[in-house]
UniProtKB/TrEMBL annotation:
Residues 6-241 form the ABC transporter domain. Belongs to the ABC transporter superfamily. GO terms for molecular function: ATP binding. This is Amino acid ABC transporter ATP-binding protein. Keywords: Amino-acid transport, ATP-binding, Cell membrane, Membrane, Nucleotide-binding, Transport. The keyword Nucleotide-binding applies. It is a peripheral membrane protein. It comes from the Bacteria. The keyword Disulfide bond does not apply. It comes from Fructobacillus apis. It is found in: Cell membrane.
Amino acid sequence: MPKTTIELQNVQKAYKGNLVLRGVSGKIEEGKTLAIIGPSGSGKSTLLKAINQLEKPTSGSVLFDGQDLVKASNKELQHLGESIGMVFQSFNLFENQTVLKNVTLGLIRVKKMGEKEAEELAHTYLQKVGMDAKAKAYPSALSGGQKQRVAIARALAMKPKVLLFDEPTSALDPENVGEVLKVISELAEEHMSMVVVTHEMNFAKKIADKVWFMQDGQLIEENDPNAIFEQPKEAETKHFIEQVIID
Protein backbone atom coordinates (compact mmCIF):
# COMPACT_ATOMS: atom_id res chain seq x y z
CA MET A 1 0.00 0.00 0.00
CA PRO A 2 1.50 3.40 -0.99
CA LYS A 3 2.75 5.58 1.84
CA THR A 4 0.94 8.87 2.35
CA THR A 5 3.26 11.87 2.04
CA ILE A 6 0.71 14.64 2.57
CA GLU A 7 -2.76 14.47 4.10
CA LEU A 8 -5.23 17.35 3.97
CA GLN A 9 -7.86 17.40 6.69
CA ASN A 10 -10.82 19.75 6.23
CA VAL A 11 -8.65 22.57 4.87
CA GLN A 12 -10.46 25.89 4.65
CA LYS A 13 -9.22 29.28 3.48
CA ALA A 14 -11.14 32.55 3.67
CA TYR A 15 -10.28 35.92 2.15
CA LYS A 16 -12.18 38.84 3.70
CA GLY A 17 -15.05 36.56 4.60
CA ASN A 18 -15.10 34.84 1.21
CA LEU A 19 -14.48 31.10 1.56
CA VAL A 20 -12.23 29.96 -1.31
CA LEU A 21 -11.41 26.53 0.13
CA ARG A 22 -14.39 24.77 1.66
CA GLY A 23 -13.13 21.87 3.74
CA VAL A 24 -10.82 19.98 1.37
CA SER A 25 -9.67 16.57 2.58
CA GLY A 26 -7.51 14.05 0.72
CA LYS A 27 -4.25 12.15 0.62
CA ILE A 28 -1.22 12.59 -1.63
CA GLU A 29 0.69 9.34 -1.96
CA GLU A 30 4.43 8.90 -2.09
CA GLY A 31 5.85 8.24 -5.56
CA LYS A 32 2.59 9.16 -7.28
CA THR A 33 1.47 12.03 -9.48
CA LEU A 34 -1.73 13.84 -8.53
CA ALA A 35 -3.28 16.16 -11.11
CA ILE A 36 -5.73 18.81 -9.90
CA ILE A 37 -8.18 20.09 -12.52
CA GLY A 38 -11.21 22.33 -12.53
CA PRO A 39 -12.52 25.67 -13.77
CA SER A 40 -10.75 28.96 -13.09
CA GLY A 41 -11.42 30.23 -9.58
CA SER A 42 -12.12 26.79 -8.16
CA GLY A 43 -9.36 27.05 -5.53
CA LYS A 44 -6.74 24.84 -7.19
CA SER A 45 -3.80 27.23 -6.85
CA THR A 46 -4.87 28.31 -3.36
CA LEU A 47 -4.90 24.66 -2.30
CA LEU A 48 -1.39 24.18 -3.67
CA LYS A 49 -0.16 27.22 -1.73
CA ALA A 50 -1.88 25.92 1.41
CA ILE A 51 0.07 22.68 1.11
CA ASN A 52 3.43 24.45 1.37
CA GLN A 53 2.07 27.20 3.64
CA LEU A 54 2.51 30.07 1.18
CA GLU A 55 -1.14 30.59 2.12
CA LYS A 56 -1.96 29.79 5.73
CA PRO A 57 -5.23 27.84 5.94
CA THR A 58 -7.95 29.52 8.01
CA SER A 59 -8.70 26.13 9.56
CA GLY A 60 -7.93 22.45 9.06
CA SER A 61 -4.67 20.52 8.96
CA VAL A 62 -1.94 19.81 6.40
CA LEU A 63 -0.01 16.77 7.57
CA PHE A 64 3.41 16.25 6.00
CA ASP A 65 5.04 13.01 7.09
CA GLY A 66 2.70 13.11 10.08
CA GLN A 67 3.49 16.69 11.18
CA ASP A 68 0.82 19.39 10.96
CA LEU A 69 2.34 22.25 8.96
CA VAL A 70 -0.47 24.60 10.02
CA LYS A 71 0.71 24.37 13.63
CA ALA A 72 4.44 24.29 12.87
CA SER A 73 6.77 27.08 14.01
CA ASN A 74 8.59 29.25 11.46
CA LYS A 75 11.81 27.34 12.15
CA GLU A 76 10.06 24.00 11.64
CA LEU A 77 8.44 25.31 8.45
CA GLN A 78 11.79 26.41 7.07
CA HIS A 79 13.19 22.93 7.59
CA LEU A 80 10.10 21.19 6.25
CA GLY A 81 9.87 23.66 3.39
CA GLU A 82 13.08 22.27 1.95
CA SER A 83 11.21 19.00 1.45
CA ILE A 84 8.36 20.57 -0.55
CA GLY A 85 9.47 22.13 -3.83
CA MET A 86 7.30 24.45 -5.91
CA VAL A 87 7.36 25.46 -9.56
CA PHE A 88 5.31 28.57 -10.32
CA GLN A 89 3.57 29.51 -13.56
CA SER A 90 5.63 32.72 -13.78
CA PHE A 91 9.04 31.00 -13.30
CA ASN A 92 10.21 33.37 -10.48
CA LEU A 93 13.81 33.41 -11.72
CA PHE A 94 16.25 36.14 -10.70
CA GLU A 95 16.76 38.13 -13.90
CA ASN A 96 20.11 39.56 -12.75
CA GLN A 97 21.60 36.11 -12.11
CA THR A 98 22.80 33.49 -14.58
CA VAL A 99 20.95 30.21 -15.00
CA LEU A 100 23.63 28.48 -12.92
CA LYS A 101 23.39 31.07 -10.11
CA ASN A 102 19.60 30.75 -10.08
CA VAL A 103 19.99 27.06 -9.27
CA THR A 104 22.90 27.34 -6.81
CA LEU A 105 21.47 30.22 -4.76
CA GLY A 106 19.14 28.07 -2.66
CA LEU A 107 21.73 25.33 -2.27
CA ILE A 108 24.26 27.78 -0.85
CA ARG A 109 21.92 29.93 1.26
CA VAL A 110 19.48 27.30 2.51
CA LYS A 111 21.39 24.03 2.31
CA LYS A 112 24.67 25.76 3.36
CA MET A 113 26.47 23.96 0.54
CA GLY A 114 29.90 25.02 -0.71
CA GLU A 115 29.96 26.85 -4.05
CA LYS A 116 31.81 24.11 -5.91
CA GLU A 117 29.52 21.36 -4.63
CA ALA A 118 26.46 23.49 -5.38
CA GLU A 119 27.62 24.13 -8.94
CA GLU A 120 28.26 20.43 -9.56
CA LEU A 121 24.77 19.58 -8.35
CA ALA A 122 23.26 22.42 -10.36
CA HIS A 123 24.94 21.19 -13.55
CA THR A 124 23.55 17.70 -12.87
CA TYR A 125 19.96 18.95 -12.72
CA LEU A 126 20.33 21.45 -15.54
CA GLN A 127 21.55 18.57 -17.66
CA LYS A 128 18.55 16.52 -16.55
CA VAL A 129 16.14 19.14 -17.95
CA GLY A 130 18.23 19.82 -21.06
CA MET A 131 19.42 23.27 -19.97
CA ASP A 132 23.07 22.80 -18.99
CA ALA A 133 24.25 24.38 -22.25
CA LYS A 134 22.57 27.61 -21.08
CA ALA A 135 24.20 27.62 -17.62
CA LYS A 136 26.00 30.94 -18.26
CA ALA A 137 23.01 32.63 -19.91
CA TYR A 138 20.67 35.09 -18.20
CA PRO A 139 16.90 34.50 -18.05
CA SER A 140 16.26 37.38 -20.47
CA ALA A 141 17.95 35.32 -23.20
CA LEU A 142 15.68 32.31 -22.66
CA SER A 143 12.28 31.32 -24.01
CA GLY A 144 9.42 30.72 -21.59
CA GLY A 145 9.85 26.97 -21.89
CA GLN A 146 13.56 27.24 -21.15
CA LYS A 147 12.89 29.43 -18.10
CA GLN A 148 10.41 26.91 -16.77
CA ARG A 149 12.88 24.07 -17.23
CA VAL A 150 15.45 26.07 -15.25
CA ALA A 151 12.83 26.60 -12.54
CA ILE A 152 12.23 22.84 -12.43
CA ALA A 153 15.99 22.18 -12.19
CA ARG A 154 16.22 24.68 -9.33
CA ALA A 155 13.40 22.93 -7.45
CA LEU A 156 14.85 19.45 -8.08
CA ALA A 157 18.33 20.48 -6.92
CA MET A 158 16.94 21.03 -3.42
CA LYS A 159 15.99 17.31 -3.46
CA PRO A 160 12.40 17.75 -2.23
CA LYS A 161 10.22 14.84 -1.20
CA VAL A 162 7.27 16.38 -3.04
CA LEU A 163 7.21 18.74 -6.00
CA LEU A 164 4.25 21.08 -6.57
CA PHE A 165 3.48 22.58 -10.00
CA ASP A 166 1.12 25.54 -10.25
CA GLU A 167 -0.13 25.68 -13.88
CA PRO A 168 3.44 25.15 -15.17
CA THR A 169 2.52 25.77 -18.84
CA SER A 170 -0.10 28.51 -18.57
CA ALA A 171 2.39 31.35 -19.22
CA LEU A 172 4.05 29.60 -22.18
CA ASP A 173 3.63 30.03 -25.90
CA PRO A 174 2.13 26.87 -27.48
CA GLU A 175 5.46 25.85 -29.05
CA ASN A 176 7.13 25.80 -25.60
CA VAL A 177 4.51 23.72 -23.79
CA GLY A 178 5.70 20.31 -25.02
CA GLU A 179 9.27 20.64 -23.73
CA VAL A 180 8.06 21.39 -20.21
CA LEU A 181 5.44 18.63 -20.20
CA LYS A 182 8.14 16.19 -21.38
CA VAL A 183 10.28 16.97 -18.32
CA ILE A 184 7.32 16.53 -15.95
CA SER A 185 6.37 13.26 -17.68
CA GLU A 186 9.90 11.94 -17.16
CA LEU A 187 9.71 12.82 -13.46
CA ALA A 188 6.40 10.94 -13.22
CA GLU A 189 8.03 7.89 -14.80
CA GLU A 190 10.76 8.11 -12.15
CA HIS A 191 8.02 8.09 -9.46
CA MET A 192 8.73 11.57 -8.14
CA SER A 193 5.95 12.56 -5.74
CA MET A 194 4.16 15.40 -7.54
CA VAL A 195 1.03 17.53 -7.40
CA VAL A 196 0.27 19.25 -10.72
CA VAL A 197 -2.40 21.92 -11.07
CA THR A 198 -3.01 21.99 -14.81
CA HIS A 199 -5.43 22.96 -17.56
CA GLU A 200 -3.73 20.51 -19.95
CA MET A 201 -6.36 17.76 -19.80
CA ASN A 202 -4.66 15.30 -22.17
CA PHE A 203 -1.48 15.66 -20.16
CA ALA A 204 -3.29 15.06 -16.87
CA LYS A 205 -4.92 11.95 -18.30
CA LYS A 206 -1.57 10.64 -19.50
CA ILE A 207 0.71 11.20 -16.50
CA ALA A 208 -1.48 11.26 -13.39
CA ASP A 209 -1.99 8.31 -11.07
CA LYS A 210 -4.96 10.13 -9.58
CA VAL A 211 -7.01 13.18 -10.57
CA TRP A 212 -8.84 15.58 -8.29
CA PHE A 213 -11.64 17.69 -9.76
CA MET A 214 -12.29 20.91 -7.85
CA GLN A 215 -15.11 23.44 -8.13
CA ASP A 216 -16.13 26.34 -5.90
CA GLY A 217 -13.39 25.57 -3.40
CA GLN A 218 -14.45 21.95 -2.94
CA LEU A 219 -12.97 18.61 -3.93
CA ILE A 220 -15.92 17.29 -5.92
CA GLU A 221 -14.47 14.02 -7.17
CA GLU A 222 -11.23 12.03 -7.05
CA ASN A 223 -10.41 8.95 -9.08
CA ASP A 224 -7.94 7.49 -11.55
CA PRO A 225 -7.65 9.44 -14.84
CA ASN A 226 -9.66 7.06 -17.02
CA ALA A 227 -12.58 7.09 -14.58
CA ILE A 228 -12.54 10.88 -14.19
CA PHE A 229 -12.35 11.62 -17.91
CA GLU A 230 -14.44 8.77 -19.30
CA GLN A 231 -16.93 7.89 -16.57
CA PRO A 232 -17.18 10.76 -14.07
CA LYS A 233 -19.61 10.07 -11.25
CA GLU A 234 -20.54 13.61 -10.27
CA ALA A 235 -22.67 15.91 -12.43
CA GLU A 236 -20.26 18.82 -11.95
CA THR A 237 -17.32 16.72 -13.12
CA LYS A 238 -19.24 15.44 -16.11
CA HIS A 239 -20.25 18.96 -17.13
CA PHE A 240 -16.65 20.20 -16.88
CA ILE A 241 -15.25 17.25 -18.86
CA GLU A 242 -17.80 17.83 -21.61
CA GLN A 243 -16.47 21.37 -22.00
CA VAL A 244 -12.85 20.30 -22.56
CA ILE A 245 -11.39 18.36 -25.44
CA ILE A 246 -9.80 15.00 -24.68
CA ASP A 247 -8.14 13.09 -27.50
